[in-house]
Design goal:
With 304 residues, this protein is α/β, with parallel strands linked by helices. It has a single domain, classed as Aldolase class I (TIM Barrel, Alpha-Beta Barrel), CATH 3.20.20. The protein has an eight-stranded parallel beta barrel, surrounded by five helices. The longest helix has 15 residues. The protein is globular.
Length: 304
């Protein structure tokens, strides 16, 4: 699946593809794909407030998958999107294997370019993160979706597990076409005055530059498995510059996700694309795809 640029705007950060188009200078064309907000079978109100909390070098979110439900997304929102601008991915979220499968069936009969299976949302009580932390359950969800659609599937892996590479292997066996590495890390903020969690749901997902080193390592771990099967990775976690994006590509990502950075720099994609183009010219590359998985590990560095 060719992208206009290697940037993917991450689910939950750009609404249903229209929010940032209100910002002067922003264009959906600067992204290769946009992951729409997490969608469930039926409408959800989401979690109690507070839902978002700024942290050092990042932020916690506990939105709880607030969305208008699959029918409204398919019948009313998708027809309003300009599919000539970029690719649009649906983000499927469920609390049972059967719900994921039904969502895949519904979106199969829609203009959506691909589906991202969100088995790793850390801020809902049911399903979500539990599926993403269990390789067998991850396999079952992906396999169920695979039987209901011929469209490309991208499985969004949880970073909050013991062996993310094994989970990736099981998802590949089940039929995923791509992997998103990775979702947010589980975190908490506490108000010392009240001695209570700041977030209404007590915990949330940590994103932003603070998680970049961990996410980068997990992309490297998954690439060792995914590359053997020709499965591409969307690397994500704290990407806010062209250098960040380059690091994820070298570690093994074919595309990179931009999320939290959009909240404080809505035009960050323009700058990242310019930086990537400059790197390609400087190093006489045909494209950034030549960088994917070119990491050379230090071998026997010796003792200092």
């Amino acid at each position: 699946m060719p992208f206009n640029t290697p940037l993917v705007l991450l689910s939950g950060c750009v609404g249903f593809g229209e929010e940032y188009t209100r910002v002067e200078g922003f264009s959906n064309r600067d992204a290769g794909a946009i992951c729409l907000k997490g969608t469930t079978l039926e409408p959800r109100l989401g979690n109690a407030p507070h839902r978002v909390w700024e942290t050092p070098a990042g932020m916690l979110n506990s939105i709880g998958l607030q969305n208008p439900g699959s029918r409204m997304v398919i019948d009313e929102i998708l027809p309003s999107l300009d599919f000539s601008e970029t690719r649009f991915f649906a983000n499927l979220s469920g609390s049972t294997v059967e719900e994921y499968a039904e969502l895949a069936r519904r979106f199969d009969d829609s203009p959506i370019d691909a589906m991202e299976i969100n088995i790793s949302c850390p801020n809902v009580r049911e399903g979500g993160v539990l599926f993403g932390n269990d390789p067998e359950m991850s396999h079952r969800v992906v396999a169920a979706c695979r039987t209901r659609t011929a469209k490309p599937l991208v499985t969004k892996l949880s970073p909050n597990q013991t062996d993310i590479a094994e989970n990736a292997r099981r998802c590949i066996e089940a039929g995923t076409d791509g992997l998103a590495v990775a979702n947010t890390f589980v975190g908490m903020a506490i108000d010392a005055r009240t001695r209570r969690p700041v977030l209404g749901e007590n915990k949330g997902g940590l994103s932003g530059p603070a998680v970049k080193p961990m996410a980068l390592y997990q992309v490297h771990q998954v690439h060792e498995v995914a590359s053997r099967h020709g499965v591409p990775i969307i690397g994500q976690g704290g990407i806010a510059s062209a250098e960040d994006a380059l690091e994820f590509m070298i570690a093994g990502a074919s595309a990179v996700g931009v999320g939290t950075a959009l909240f404080y720099d809505p035009l960050v994609c323009v700058r990242i694309n310019e930086g990537l183009a400059g790197y390609v010219r400087e190093h006489n590359l045909d494209s950034v795809s030549g960088l994917v998985g070119t990491l050379e590990l230090n071998r026997d560095p010796g003792v200092w």
